[in-house]
Structure formats: structure tokens, C-alpha cells
Amino acid sequence: MTKSNNNRRPVYLTAVGLLVLSLGAVFVVRSFGSESGADGFLGGGSCDDPTQIQLHTTPEIQPQLEAAAKSLAAKKDKDAPCLQFTISPVKSSVDARTIANKGDSTPDLWVPDSSAWIPQADDGDSIPTIVVPSIATSPLVLVGRNENFANISSWLGAFGTTKPALLDPGSESAGLLALLAVGSERSKTSATDSLVSSVMVPLAQRLGSMAKPFTDVDGVFGRAAAENSQVVVPASEQAFVKYQDEHPDAELKAVVPQTGTLVFDYPIAVTSKADNNQVITEAAKSLAAEMLTDAADQARDDAGFRDGLLSPLTGGRGVGDIIQLTKPTPSAVDKALLDWTRLSLTAHSLAVIDVSGSMNEKVGDKTRMQLTIAAAQQGLGLFPDNAALGLWTFSTNIGPSHAAYRQLVPIRKLNKAQRNTIIATLQQQKAIPNGGTGLYETAIAAVRAVKENFDSSAVNAVMIFTDGKNDDPNGLTLTQAIRQLESLRDPARPVRIIALGMGPDVDGNELGQLAAATGGLSYVARNPGDLQGVFINALQSR
What we know:
Layout: E1 2-3, E2 20-21, E3 26-27, E4 51-57, H1 62-73, E5 83-89, H2 92-100, E6 109-111, E7 129-132, E8 138-144, H3 155-160, E9 163-164, H4 173-184, H5 193-208, H6 217-225, E10 231-236, H7 237-246, E11 253-255, E12 263-264, E13 268-270, H8 279-290, H9 294-302, H10 330-344, E14 347-354, E15 362-363, E16 366-367, H11 368-380, E17 388-394, E18 405-413, H12 416-428, H13 439-452, E19 459-466, H14 478-488, E20 496-502, H15 508-516, E21 521-525, H16 531-540
Parallel strand pairs: 4-5, 4-6, 9-10, 14-17, 14-19, 19-20, 20-21
Antiparallel strand pairs: 1-4, 2-3, 6-13, 7-13, 8-10, 8-11, 8-12, 15-16, 17-18
Helix pairs in contact: 1-8, 4-10, 5-10, 5-16, 11-12, 11-16, 13-14
């Protein structure tokens, strides 16, 4: 908040150069457009030294705020404060980062599309103060073709049976709220951690592998509307209604899963550090009050926004009455963003598969080797094309110079040729009769190999599949192996072991210690049928 002076900075006016002059207050309502040589204020009379208030808003509700500012300015109240509003459209996530980083363009007032961004604007000293909880609302909906909504029992159920196109959760509220909805609805469902992972891990991998994440909701709606498309799009009801108005022939509908939904709540927060006399706070409240008039109510509804009570839109538009999910806590928002960032990173991994003699043992009508190869092939499908994967096998004395490991497929990007090579090589593998499990030597060599070709843009890991414990009589002890793995550990270039054990003979404690020495994790599937779930959990542990 600053006083105007002779060295006024230029502002960007609307096309008509909107300027409102009243006896009590002056408001300049602007959007990004042509640049003016002055700040647009032609002050005089009792308001020749206005307090300037910079207000940033999520773009879609800017017209409603501009109208409210015009209405407030038109009131001829001589006791009103002398204020000048400059209203700029800025994406909520961008403002959150700017405020958190104490950037030069930090506004005095902020209207994000979701209060989920408010805690993300913590600059280390304080968090912006919400002074108006909501000036409009819009529920999160799922948009797609009618045939894609066979399962709307929950957000997770819908995601698991369609092809969700989430807008980038790190920058777009619709994507973030979709992740949060999956978490919030779990109090109403019986979804296990494994079930959630089986849906969300492949989704994060698929969307994270895109060269450019989805940020244009209209563009994604277009994908969803295409004939035979399986794409569904989490978006605000307001965005959907607006798209329908502009594309009346699009065969799209919006639904809310039966568990309920989260809401875009459009709060007003004070972000100024100079708000000593409460002028900015009171200005925010006055602006909000102008959005509750009858005229403002109609304009808001016409634009596709609901009121603060979530009353359905008029004319049968939108999704009607909704059930609201519990609002996520700031820590839940932090976790959702962190988990998505972690899960959507591409992988630079080496799969290392046990081919010792015990892998010949049968479980039902298949050997452990066959079950492991099947699980590895299924797991391969979870990796996106921009991931990189290689393949080794291990058993005592199978490599050059009696090494306990054999290098089969170098780590390369998973293009079609690499996938086919890995699958064909996997299918050729057989357990070696009387072969021992040279686990320790192999683990150390594999970590070294991945570290030598470290990819700083990816999660670097060694994925070890085994049914037993180390039984190389001429090899290292567990203590020696752990010491060597710890010596290879580098926080700047982390390579983690993800150990996947299977069967009744596997030593979970041994695997756990080896993995922990690298900062990794281990998983044990006592029942071979659990291998796919174990693989999903391993990917999630990155």
C-alpha cells in the first residue's frame, strides 16, 4: 500500500480506459491491456491523494470484482476513504509463490480461486490473512462424455475406469483439488492404500511424462469431447458452464461423484505488510459487500459462479445440489503437492532379477521365476516412455570373472524398441539349477552402475527382485555390504535400492537393511499374487 506521487507508475487499463470519479473515493479498475502514460487517476476535489491498493485476482472472476469496484466508487459518500484500486489478473499459484518469496509484485489484496493456496503463500514471517472467506463458489466437477461415467461412486473409482486429464496440480487449482478430493473421500470409502496407489501412481507417471503439463482447461475439454474419447477432466463447474455456452454442440456433461466434492471458494486475503490502520481490510470487506447486491448476484450467476451457500445455478445449468467433502487441512495440501511432485518424476532405474535355483520352485502351477517375470512385465507398463530402464539378473558365478550378476540390457529410454528388448530378454530367463543368491555383491555393483550414469532429472533407483537371502559363501558379510552401500551414498546424487522380496523364504530384515543403507525401502510379498501390489508400492516409495 503506497501513496500516489508525481512519479506514478503506468498501469494497464481496460479497452475503454475505465475511470470512475466520485466525491468520496476513486477506483481505477484495470486489466492487462494497452499501457497508459499515467496511472489513470485524474484526482481533484476531496480525493486528490488516494491510497493505492493493488489487488490481484484469479482471472475468471476479475470482471465481477471490477464491477463491484465501479459500484463502490459510484457511491457518493463524502466520508468514504480515498482509495484507488488496481485489479490485475494473476494465476493463484503464481501469486502464492510470489508472496512466499517476498517478490516485488506482491499485492495488497489477493483473491485466489481456492483457499488451499493461502498457506502456500507463507513467507516465513506470516501467512496472508483471510478477511472475507468467500465472494463466490464453484464446485469441482468431473467433465467428460456420458459413456465415461459408468463408475461415479467415488473420485478414485472414476479415475480408475477412465483416462483422467488433470490440469497440472502444481499450478492449477482444478488439478490440486482433484488430488485432495481423492484423499478427502477416503473417510467415506473402503479404499486401501494399495488401491489408491494402483490408480494414482500410473496416473502421476503418465501425466508427469508429458513434455508440457495440461494448463488450458478449454483445450482439455476439447480432448474430452472428441468422439470415443475416454478423457475425463476435473474442473470447476464455472469453467464447464462457460465452455458449454461457447461450445453448445460439445457432447460433454459434468458430474459429481457420489462421495461428494471440494469447492473453489474465492476468498479475499490481505497480503500487505503495511496494513496498520485497517484501510485495506475495510476496503476488502466493502468490495465483498458490493458483490452481494441483487445486480451482482445476477451477474455472478450469469458467469457460472455460485453464491457462498453453494446454491445451484439457475436455468438447470451445472450439476445442481452437491455433497461437500471435508475441506483439506494445510498439511494435507502440502502432502498432496509433495506426493504428486515425487510420483510424477520420471525414473532412471535398473531392474535386477534373482535367477538362483530356488526360483524354480513352484507356486501353484507356475514357478517363482515365471511369476516374477509376469510381475516385472506388468510393472514395465507403469513406466512412461520418458523413463529409462535396464535389466540385470543375478545368481552366484553367472557373470564374467565369476561375478554374481549378469548385465543384460543397458539403461535406456523406454521407447518401443527398449520395451520390446526388455520383454523379450525377460521371457528368455530361466532359474539356474543349484545357483546361489549373490545378493550383496549384486546390490553394490548395481548401485555403482546407476550412480555412474546418474540422471539429475529423474528418480535413480535399483529395483531388486528376489525370493531369498544372500547365500554366497565366498562373498561379503551383511555388515560389510551395508558399509560399502553407505560409503556410496551421496545426498546430491542419491541412488536408492527398492527391494522386492517374495515367497516364504525371503529374509525381509536383510532386504530392509540393504535398502535402508541407500535411503530406500523394501517390500515383501508372501503371496506371489501380491507381487503387482508390491510393485506399485515400490514405485510410490521413490
